[in-house]
Amino acid sequence: RALVRHIGTLALPKFSTRPEKEVYQGLLKRLPFLFGGIAIMIILYIVAAPLVFRLLFPRYLSVLPYSQLFCLSIIDSITYPISSAFTAHKRTKQLTFLTTSVYAIDLSLLFILTPLFGLQGVLFAKLASRIATVAIGGGILYSLARKTRNLTTSS
Description:
This protein is mainly alpha-helical. It contains six helices and no strands. It has helices spanning about 1-15, 20-55, 65-70, 80-90, 90-115, 120-155. Helix 1 (about 1-15) packs parallel to helix 4 (about 80-90) and helix 2 (about 20-55) runs antiparallel to helix 6 (about 120-155).
């Protein structure tokens, strides 16, 4: 997750010097590759975790499924470059909507699922809120990409 977070931070200066249309269209083209890289990391972790747990944490094999489930939550790392693009082009309205809606979803799911399912509820709530982050961030990006494309083609 930290590696992808730094990609967003490093891209911020480049995003701020480029036109919005170019940034959003470029992100739409490149994010599937980032998603693929994240998916590969998730799969590698899920496959390697049993071996690592047996070697390093043999007393904690019971938490292995929780660890593997929670590793799916790094899928929201794909939103770091999106947030950087919104920051670079001063899209505070979109950033505020993304942040507040994700926190509202997260808190609501934690409030509902934790009493019902305990630790599994927390894991499912966090995973669902991070998937919501990807969906909302991707939706906003797609909407802005369409809007900027339509603005430049109509003028």
